[in-house]
Amino acid sequence: MSRKNSVISYTSSGINDKVQTFSLKREVGLVSAVSLIAGTMIGSGIFMSPQWVLYNIGSPGGSLVIWAACGVLAMLGSLCYAELGTVIRESGGEYIYILRTSGPLPAFLLAFTATFAVRPASITGISLSFAEYAVAPFYQGCYPPQLVVKSVAAACILTLAIVNCLNVRFSMSIQVIFTVAKVLALLVIVIGGVLLLFRGHTDSFHKAFEGTIVGINNIGVAFYQGLWSYDGWNNLNYATEELKRPEVNLPRALMIAIPMVTALYLLVNVSYLAAMTPRELMSSNAVAVTWGTKVLGSWAWLMSVAAALSAFGSLNGTFFSGGRVCFVAAREGHMPDILAMAHARRLTPSPALIFTTTLSLLVLIPGDFQTIVNFFSFTAWFFYGITLSGLLYLKIRKPHLHRPYKVPFIIPIMVLIAAVLLVLAPIVDNPQIEYL
Ligand code: ARG
């Protein structure tokens, strides 16, 4: 039974024993919704992953195919989520969908894994990339000390935690501003790339598919890296209760945000490859800075700033949704009640945010970016798969439910097959204890 109505709220004057139902305010409109999705998707990945996709797949053509395929997968996945989000209209993303379709045990496992491992890991991963790019201008030509990088990452996590505890509207305006800033930054890379192509920098694209590696493990890891950059396509489903007119705005926001991000990612990759050879791209560990050095010359530091800002905005979106999973799970009785409390006046789920922050800071101590990305994508797609089977269940067993948005049957089946392959392929090909 839902415990929605039995949460006791705390106010500044002590325990308020008036029984309350919590709903967060409906403050998110279409523009905010688009930036909540695009702003979370565009983050660290497009500045960190291209060399890994290329490295694993072995050829520029192959790498562009992977980037496009990841975009298509994100789009199809999000269409399935649009139906889920308009049928099950509660916030909480995968958690609430799994709870309503597969029952409390899988939902509890998801909430547990998400709260204790996946969210903190993604927060830490993005904050690390923020820190790497933020300190890059001060350590030109050498690697920055780990202590400096991790301290900057911790400062970034703490700042955003405080902002998100203070005010939903404020954290939304940060989101809009950063989304605009990073879309502009990516556009600079795209325009630079187009100019390069016109000037005849097309060497990387001759024999584009030469050297493509078709091993299961390589393709799997290339997808993990690419999908990390697209992750966040499901972000709005964490906050459907805060969305104005969700039945209209949820599908609409997805259909604007995801194709836009896919196009940008593809063009940015083309631009990277126009500016440098595949070999240079693979050996660069901050590809945007290498691109900047080649194309912008002494203005290359702009790219460090852009990449850092981009990660900052993405982290903000991750916080926004991360606190909410914890909050919704606690509201259902799957987490301690204190995590279900929202601030009495500001209506932000502060205790859940503070909890997520603490765990992220703990993960930060030993964490490194690459391991986190592979761990993240593997675990995330495992749960996306379970969520999609829930959607199929609803479509088969409850066809009469009111569905403001209906996704064709074949789409969840295709995405489910992709999720199964993504999760099984690396395990079968190269079993490792981490997967367990
Ligand atoms: N796509 C983001 C990036 O490239 C990572 C998103 C992590 N996941 C999330 N739900 N916030 O940095």
From TrEMBL:
<feature type="transmembrane region" description="Helical">
    <location>
        <begin position="406"/>
        <end position="428"/>
    </location>
</feature>
<feature type="transmembrane region" description="Helical">
    <location>
        <begin position="347"/>
        <end position="366"/>
    </location>
</feature>
<keyword id="KW-0813">Transport</keyword>
<keyword id="KW-1133">Transmembrane helix</keyword>
<feature type="transmembrane region" description="Helical">
    <location>
        <begin position="28"/>
        <end position="52"/>
    </location>
</feature>
<keyword id="KW-0472">Membrane</keyword>
<feature type="transmembrane region" description="Helical">
    <location>
        <begin position="253"/>
        <end position="275"/>
    </location>
</feature>
<feature type="transmembrane region" description="Helical">
    <location>
        <begin position="64"/>
        <end position="84"/>
    </location>
</feature>
<dbReference type="InterPro" id="IPR002293">
    <property type="entry name" value="AA/rel_permease1"/>
</dbReference>
<keyword id="KW-1015">Disulfide bond</keyword>
<feature type="transmembrane region" description="Helical">
    <location>
        <begin position="176"/>
        <end position="198"/>
    </location>
</feature>
<feature type="transmembrane region" description="Helical">
    <location>
        <begin position="372"/>
        <end position="394"/>
    </location>
</feature>
<feature type="transmembrane region" description="Helical">
    <location>
        <begin position="299"/>
        <end position="327"/>
    </location>
</feature>
<keyword id="KW-1003">Cell membrane</keyword>
<keyword id="KW-0597">Phosphoprotein</keyword>
<dbReference type="GO" id="GO:0016324">
    <property type="term" value="C:apical plasma membrane"/>
</dbReference>
<feature type="transmembrane region" description="Helical">
    <location>
        <begin position="151"/>
        <end position="170"/>
    </location>
</feature>
<dbReference type="InterPro" id="IPR050598">
    <property type="entry name" value="AminoAcid_Transporter"/>
</dbReference>
<comment type="similarity">
    <text>Belongs to the amino acid-polyamine-organocation (APC) superfamily.</text>
</comment>
<feature type="transmembrane region" description="Helical">
    <location>
        <begin position="96"/>
        <end position="115"/>
    </location>
</feature>
<dbReference type="Pfam" id="PF13520">
    <property type="entry name" value="AA_permease_2"/>
</dbReference>
<dbReference type="GO" id="GO:0022857">
    <property type="term" value="F:transmembrane transporter activity"/>
</dbReference>
<keyword id="KW-0812">Transmembrane</keyword>
<protein>
    <recommendedName>
        <fullName>b(0,+)-type amino acid transporter 1</fullName>
    </recommendedName>
</protein>
